[in-house]
Design a protein that fits this description.
- The complex is a heterodimer of chains A (about 260) and B (about 280).
- Chain A is of the alpha/beta class and about 260 residues long.
- Chain A is built from 9 helices and 12 strands.
- In chain A, the strands form 3 sheets. Chain A has a 6-stranded mixed β-sheet, with helices on both faces. Chain A has a 4-stranded antiparallel β-sheet with strand order 2-1-4-5, with helices on one face. In chain A, strands 11-12 form a two-stranded antiparallel sheet.
- Chain A starts with a helix and ends in a 10-residue tail after the last strand.
- With about 280 residues, chain B is mostly helical.
- In chain B, helix 5 packs antiparallel against helix 11 and helix 12 packs across helix 13.
- Classes of the chains: A alpha/beta (about 260), B mainly alpha (about 280).
- Chains A and B meet through strand 6 and helix 3 of A and helix 9, helix 10 and helix 13 of B.
Chain lengths: ~260, ~280
């Protein structure tokens, strides 16, 4: 960790009045919020609430219809590589002929010139990131040999190697084993200590409530934003999830079998 | 035995033919790696057919046929990128429309020419033994340019092929690189019509690269193995064509196919799937 600590600069994220969606339909309607530098934020909401859409907007994959996204007070695209994004695993071609190390080294490409080959330090950072994720021994393996949890760790290692100021994880706890969930969570907490701004979308409301300092509850617009105990009130959950949430004592259960407005 | 190997080279047209086939075999196989990895095989086939109107127009105007093919390939490649870039229609739909339209236009133009039959068969099936010194120089220059483009943009092409999201995030000019790949593909198809013709160009693009994919686990080794397979297919194909007197393009493609079948049978990837 020692090399990463002094390099990290926390980033403030400002989202102002963004409207975005697909094929003429708006998924996000006039959303505004600010994430102070170094915050760890969980984004929750029912299926189709626009969590993935929001993440795509933040990394510049989906153009906004209106509104602005600012990082360090500058518009999106001003900083080349201070945002790292771990996509949902389904979008990756796992049969592509690259090794685990190849993939993690790609995280350094944003810092290299057009013709420049990865330097020795880039390889060292990549290997170090793999070690941090507990998969250093897989460096020379083909990515097609990996289990779901290992696949996720590879992309987390790549995000680490990018040395990001903001780390965005889209559904990192879905479909991976408990040990990978724990490794992911430990990494997030370590990055949080280093001052990296982290933003994670999740279906796991209990994890959002217990392991994150701030929670953003959205359902196409912002329902609530603040500390977990302020956000997870019965009223907010009723507005955000409708009848899908059962709050029993300390445990919240989301009924995922019949989402109200599953769009994508 | 030595005479068996050297005897074709006593003719200068055979020497040119071998050189052209070697260049095209290597070029197609390297570019083909991207075609296979990006799932663009259909596009390669489409482009090969789509150059027909360019060739026909060049013939009617008395110009250079290769140059005509070249212009048509670029036009169609850019057209496909244009129609599908905003996600308005899917890329394979855009390809289907443009390539049939261009092919239809080519056939319409050719049907108006009476004496075209011989040249047309060369365009469709290749005529590696009719390669002139100028053709050979043109092929060599294009091969150097395209392999140069691959070398310069190696890292960038890998990222846009493997992870377009990362490419967007590190602000690579994704659209420009996609066009560049399409243009490279178009140029490669144009060069390959000399040896294997429009009808078989797609095979030279896809078959060696697919064989290499089965045998390797990293992109650089896949490219090298693909180039070697392409070169061997061209050489062996031409010898077969010379000694048993069959069409050179067919002999080359059939050799490549045989290598693919062997690669498929002995692939570590495949055995892993079947035994696990």
């Amino acid at each position: 960790m020692e090399t990463m600590e002094n390099l990290t600069i926390s980033a403030q994220l400002d989202v102002e009045n963004i409207e975005a969606g697909y094929n003429g339909e708006s998924v996000l309607n006039k959303i505004s919020f600010s994430v102070p530098a170094g915050q760890s934020l969980a984004v929750v909401g029912p299926n189709g609430a626009g969590k993935s859409t929001l993440f795509k907007v933040l990394v510049g994959l989906l153009p906004v219809r209106s509104g602005t996204v600012k990082i360090h007070g500058k518009p999106l695209g001003y900083h080349l590589d201070c945002v790292a994004y771990v996509p949902q695993r389904e979008v990756i071609d796992w049969k592509f002929p690259v090794t685990v190390l190849d993939v993690v080294v790609m995280g350094r490409f944003g810092k290299l010139k057009w013709l420049q080959k990865p330097r020795k330090e880039d390889l060292e950072i990549a290997l170090h990131s793999l070690d941090q994720m507990g998969i250093g021994d897989l460096a020379k393996n083909s990515i097609e040999d990996l289990s779901g949890g290992q696949q996720q760790r590879v992309f987390l290692a790549r995000a680490l190697a990018q040395n990001p100021h903001i780390l965005l994880l889209d559904e990192p706890f879905t479909g991976v084993d408990a040990s990978t969930q724990e490794t992911t969570m430990n990494l997030l907490e370590e990055l949080h200590r280093q001052g990296v701004t982290t933003m994670v979308s999740t279906h796991d409301l209990n994890m959002a409530a217990t392991r994150f300092s701030q929670v953003l509850l959205i359902n196409r617009k912002i329902i609530a934003y603040g500390k977990p105990q302020e956000v997870f009130t019965p009223e907010n959950l009723q507005i955000g999830f409708g009848g899908q949430v059962l709050s029993m004592h300390d445990v919240m259960v989301v009924d995922e079998c019949c989402p109200q407005d599953e769009l994508r | 035995m030595i005479e068996f190997i050297t005897s074709p080279f006593t003719y200068s047209f055979m020497q040119r033919g071998f050189l052209a086939a070697l260049l095209v075999g290597v070029l197609c196989s390297v570019v083909g790696v991207y075609i296979v990895l990006r799932g663009m095989a259909f596009l390669g086939d489409a482009l090969a057919h789509a150059i027909l109107p360019g060739v026909a127009i060049a013939y009617l105007l008395g110009g250079n046929l290769i140059l005509g093919a070249f212009v048509a390939a670029i036009a169609v490649a850019i057209g496909i990128g244009f129609f599908s870039s905003e996600g308005t229609i899917k890329e394979d739909t855009a390809i289907g429309i443009l390539f049939s339209a261009a092919f239809a236009l080519g056939v319409a133009l050719i049907s108006s020419i009476r004496t075209y039959a011989v040249d047309l068969s060369h365009i469709l099936f290749g005529n590696v033994l009719g390669v002139s010194t100028n053709d050979l120089i043109f092929t060599a220059i294009l091969t150097v340019i395209i392999l140069g483009i691959v070398a310069i943009n190696y890292k960038q092409f890998m990222v846009i092929s493997f992870d377009p999201i990362l490419a967007t995030m590190i602000r690579l000019p994704v659209r420009f690189l996609r066009y560049l790949l399409l243009v490279m593909l178009g140029l490669t198809v144009v060069v390959s019509i000399q040896t294997v013709g429009v009808g078989l160009a797609a095979a030279m693009l896809v078959t060696p690269a697919a064989s290499a994919y089965l045998l390797t686990r990293r992109l650089p080794s896949m490219m090298i193995v693909s180039a070697i397979i392409g070169a061997i297919s061209s050489m062996v194909g031409l010898y077969i064509s010379y000694y048993i007197n069959i069409a050179s393009g067919s002999a080359i493609v059939l050799t490549a196919t045989l290598i693919f079948l062997l690669a498929f049978a002995f692939s570590p990837r495949r055995s892993k799937i079947t035994h696990s």
